[in-house]
Specification:
Keywords: Leucine-rich repeat, Plant defense, Repeat. GO terms for molecular function: ADP binding. InterPro entries: Apaf_helical (IPR042197), LRR_dom_sf (IPR032675), LRR_R13L1-DRL21 (IPR056789), NB-ARC (IPR002182), P-loop_NTPase (IPR027417), WH-like_DNA-bd_sf (IPR036388), WHD_DRP (IPR058922). The protein contains 25 helices and 35 strands. The chain is an alpha/beta fold. Among the domains are: about 190 residues, Rossmann fold; about 90 residues, no CATH class; about 90 residues, Arc Repressor Mutant, subunit A (Orthogonal Bundle); about 90 residues; about 80 residues, no CATH class. A hairpin with a 3-residue loop joins strand 34 and strand 35.
Length: about 850
């Protein structure tokens, strides 16, 4: 009680300062907006390795989806560090039954070393948001890595209980059994180490990429001894695998590693983990040790950007040039090796499979902190700080390699900054007061990455020949094409990423302005090395000619806010292009052959040979997507996987003939296409989502469809020709706040439900209409439950309405679970029934 009183007093004091915190949050909380320092909301780590826990997942899912009076409200997962608690929780949350049982899933991570005052401030800042999200909803709240019950008991419990539904649940993970007891957990799952066989399977997968079991038979005995010494701890096993992947596949080499594995006492909570991690660190070459220890500067649990991390390594001098290999490629290779050795973990990946975000496991972070020693300052991040001036003495930080001043109020950079001849990365994005750059900036020849969003002096970029990443805004302020040409963008032969933008203002641009900005962009032709291009808020009518003829290595293209663009560039001949994202246009009326062809007209061979994702969004006057595939010879869109068309209200149809060539197209999203009347003849689509398409009347010939979602498609009435889709496993329709059109219900009657299928039907009507789906009582007319016969055709049905009312139906067991108040009852309750000829209700 004394501890709780102390926390409540702090909360009152923090409330008094909340207004000040909100106005100056970056300085008070040392956080950039949208970033997490040690605890994260709604961020799930990307854990792909899962061995030997399928049965545990199923048991936990059943506990969490059972009524609270059966399973309790709090469930705990306990185990030592690295045993797999986070992996288990993620797999539970990803389970289809959890996703459709809970309206809201919230994940909060609390580091063991969290600063109590800092955490209190940030939780208070989210309380109002969380309450709005949770009110009346069935919520699953995950509290990860708890070392005490203070966060729950003193901060979150009262808000959670007040606003969430009765059958909301809490799932915690901890290494401390007392935490579960203090929180009143009704069920505690104690994580166990992997079995010897499962451990060997994981070790072999990490060390040898799976390998051939017979080929590795002579190493199996040694490998199993390693697993046994690691107590079956998955993190320790992965660490050992990371060491072995660099060794010879000989028994002597593996036995040398095994003999090097030393252990602490069994009472050590990190027993089985730290010895393996320590051996993994000692096995690192010196250049990787420096990179690894550098990661300890990030707070425990911090999500680290791949790009920022590699740039910081370069700035610190950890990466050395090696002949023809660039420092960026070398840094990427270092990062991949740390990931391979399981000393870093992937959180999010690019399309190509490369890590985009990574993190350190908390046990690995503990190890890095032990060895870390700060040296001379080489990296300085002042972003989001409310600083207005930099002193002249700033130029004396001679070892500085990385400087981030983005989102600051700095108006001018001191000339002494040009003394920083080792500076490689300079971030000046969104420095709204910045009026000029130092006069000698072009002589800072080490600069490789620069973001000068607010610079009007584009010619200052002329001699920055080593740039890898460049961003320029306000290009509409460049007076003429001659000055743009002075930037010599094409001569920056190492450039990989480029963003070019304008500030169109609130008034319609005049003809002269549009012509001038077109000329300026024409002179900004990038080098062939470019891989990523973003053009935004460009208000010319046509894009520069180099878009179609010079970007042979470009992989990612984004065209955002090109409101006056009248036709898309010819991109079909670009051999490396993997992703196109087009957003916000008010002038393109049709898309046709000009988009598919390369410059010069017809092409042979392959059109868009590597394009995987194509997205059109907010193209407000686009009416026709002409199917001109017959004009092309050769292969069309062979790698296209995802097509998204969102908020294109005038588009009349999608080119089925063209898309029939896209044999890898598995996902189609159609959203806000108000004049499209049907979707069909897509032979390879597995996931189809149709939202707010008011004129779609029918679906047909989708033989491989697995997931079908449609919301506010009032005219949809015909799925007769959908076919016998044995692959179909999930249908979602409706909206929790609105009624479901009767035509939609009629269309569902035409869906052929196979006897052996595991098809799930998820219905989201409003609360009033939800009763139409319930079994009828003896006293009810058929009109009171018109959709119950339809519900009975499906193996699994989930229905939920806004406000938390729901029912679940399982055909094989005739089980019906609901919290809806029956006509004969005056209070809500959860009922579970076995449905026979007459529905029997047991409370």
């Amino acid at each position: 009680m004394r501890r709780r009183s102390r926390i409540l007093k702090r909360i009152r004091a923090i409330h008094a300062d909340l207004k000040l915190i909100r106005t100056d949050q970056s300085q008070h909380l040392s956080l950039a907006p949208g970033k997490s320092k040690g605890d994260a909301f709604l961020v799930l780590p990307d854990e792909k390795e899962i061995i030997g826990i399928d049965g545990v997942i199923d048991g936990l899912v059943r506990l969490l989806t059972a009524p609270p009076n059966v399973s309790g409200r709090v469930t705990a997962i306990l185990g030592t560090g690295g045993i797999g608690k986070t992996t288990l929780v993620q797999k539970v949350l990803d389970d289809e039954r959890i996703r459709y049982h809970f309206d809201v899933r919230i994940w909060v991570r609390v580091s063991r070393h969290f600063d109590e005052n800092d955490l209190l401030r940030r939780i208070i800042r989210y309380v109002e948001i969380l309450e709005e999200i949770m009110v009346g909803k069935r919520v699953l709240l995950v509290l990860e890595d708890l070392w005490s019950d203070e966060v729950w008991d003193g901060l979150l419990k009262v808000h959670f209980n007040r606003v969430s539904c009765y059958d909301s649940k809490v799932l915690i993970t901890s290494t401390v059994e007392d935490v579960a007891r203090q929180m009143g957990a009704s069920h505690c799952h104690q994580m166990k180490g992997l079995s010897i066989d499962d451990g060997w399977s994981l070790l072999r997968k990490v060390a040898l990429g799976g390998g051939d079991a017979e080929e590795l038979e002579h190493l199996k005995d040694v490998g199993m001894k390693m697993v046994q010494k690691c107590s079956g701890n998955p993190l320790a096993v992965k660490a050992m695998g990371g060491i072995l992947c660099t060794k010879e596949r000989s028994k002597i080499a593996w036995e040398n590693v095994l003999s090097s594995l030393k252990f602490s006492s069994l009472s050590d909570p990190l027993y089985g983990v730290m010895p393996a991690l320590l051996l993994g660190y000692r096995d690192l070459p010196s250049h990787l040790k420096a990179c690894f220890l550098y990661c300890s500067l990030f707070p425990d649990g911090y999500l680290i950007s791949r790009t920022s991390l590699t740039q910081m390594w370069i700035a610190e001098g950890f990466i050395k040039e090696d002949g023809e290999v660039s420092m960026e490629d070398m840094a990427d290779a270092y990062l991949e090796e740390l990931l391979m050795r399981s000393l870093l973990q992937v959180v999010d990946s690019h399309l190509e499979g490369h890590a985009k975000l990574c993190k350190m496991h908390d046990c690995v972070h503990d190890l890095a902190v032990i060895f870390d020693k700060l040296r001379h300052l080489r990296v300085l991040n002042l972003s989001h700080m409310k600083i207005r001036h930099l002193p002249e003495s700033f130029g004396e930080v001679m070892q500085l390699r990385y400087l981030d001043l983005s989102y600051t109020l700095v108006g001018e950079l001191p000339e002494s900054m040009c003394n920083l001849q080792n500076l490689q990365t300079l971030a000046l994005g969104h420095c709204v007061n910045l009026s000029k750059l130092p006069g000698k900036l072009p002589w800072m020849l080490s600069l490789r990455h620069i973001d000068v969003d607010e610079s009007k002096n584009i010619e200052e970029l002329k001699y920055l020949s080593q740039l890898r990443c460049l961003g320029i805004e306000n290009l509409d302020k460049v007076p003429n094409r001659a000055e743009a040409k002075e930037a010599m963008i094409r001569d920056k032969i190492y450039l990989k990423s480029l963003s070019l933008g304008c500030n169109p203002g609130s008034q319609e641009p005049e003809e002269e302005e549009m012509n001038r900005v077109e000329e300026v962009f024409e002179e900004l032709c990038p080098p062939p090395s470019l891989q990523s291009l973003l053009i935004y808020d460009f208000f010319g009518r046509k894009l520069p000619s180099w878009m179609s003829s010079s970007l042979w290595n470009m992989k990612h293209l984004k065209l955002h806010g090109l409101i006056n663009l009248q036709r898309l560039p010819s991109l079909g001949g670009l051999p490396q292009l993997r992703e196109i994202d087009i957003d916000n246009n008010c002038a393109i009326l049709s898309v046709g052959s000009e988009f598919l062809f390369c410059v010069g007209g017809r092409i042979g061979g392959v059109t868009f040979p590597k394009l995987e994702v194509l997205s059109f969004r907010r193209m407000y006057v686009w009416k026709e997507w002409n199917d001109e595939s017959q004009l092309l010879s050769g292969i069309i869109l062979p790698c296209l996987r995802v097509l998204k068309i969102q908020y294109c209200p005038e588009l009349r149809s999608i080119p089925v003939g063209l898309l029939r060539h896209a044999t890898n197209l598995t996902e189609l999203l159609l959203k806000g296409a108000r004049t499209v009347d049907g979707v069909g003849d897509l032979l390879h689509v597995r996931k189809l989502s149709i939202y707010y398409c008011m004129k779609v009347e029918r679906l047909w010939n989708l033989p491989r469809l697995e997931i079908l979602s449609f919301v506010e498609c009032d005219a949809l009435k015909d799925m007769t020709n959908l076919g016998t889709v044995s692959s179909l496993r999930y249908i979602l329709f409706g909206h929790q706040r609105w009624s479901i059109p009767p035509l939609n219900m009629e269309a569902l009657k035409n869906v052929v439900v196979m006897d052996e299928t595991r098809l799930v039907l998820s219905v989201c009507p409003n609360e009033t209409e939800l009763r139409k789906y319930l079994p009828k009582d003896d006293d009810d007319d058929d009109d009171d439950a018109p959709y119950w016969p339809l519900i009975q055709r499906f193996p699994y049905v989930h229905a939920r309405a806004h406000g938390g009312r729901y029912f679940n139906y399982t055909r094989s067991t005739s089980e019906f679970v609901t919290n809806i108040i029956s006509n004969s009852s005056s209070s809500p309750s959860t009922t579970i029934a076995k449905i026979t000829t007459t529905m029997v209700v047991t409370a």
